[in-house]
Amino acid sequence: MGNSQKASVPAIDIGISEKDRAKVAEALSKVLADTYTLYLMTHNFHWNVTGPMFNTLHNMFMEQYTELWNSLDVIAERIRALGHFAPGTYREYAKLSSISEPKDVPEALEMVRLLTKGNESVAKTARAAFGAADGANDQPTADLLTQRLDVHEKAAWMLRSLLQ
Length: 164
Known about the structure:
Number of helices: 5
Oligomer: single chain
CATH superfamily: Ferritin, core subunit, four-helix bundle
Shape: elongated
CATH architecture: Up-down Bundle
CATH class: Mainly Alpha
Number of strands: 0
Radius of gyration: 18 Å
CATH topology: Ferritin
């Protein structure tokens, strides 16, 4: 190759149109934003929970935020595999997320309520993204979203059970 010649980068050709890849990546970006927001809230509550259920909630929140943290890379890397950049700033997450963060440190049972709602919000966002993935015949994204739905619906159930 000559001095200034670079090998051209081939276009993405995975059987999903650019328009559909963009639509799926946009939907996944919302899932990523919701997941990161829920991760941060869960970690915050892990640090700051108090009261008679401290040990139970402290450990449960750690298990949940660890799972959320590990899922962030999977979601972001799927966005990249579709040929788009993953959002990665608080500003972008605040704009994309459907989850409202609390202004103060709530008491323990309010933390549980907020995390229940947060997991349900991620599930709704993932379910909406599943429609985009399914419509684009994007099985890897649909599989990822099915797994995320299972995690968030189970977490919401377990948290809700503490309130009964």
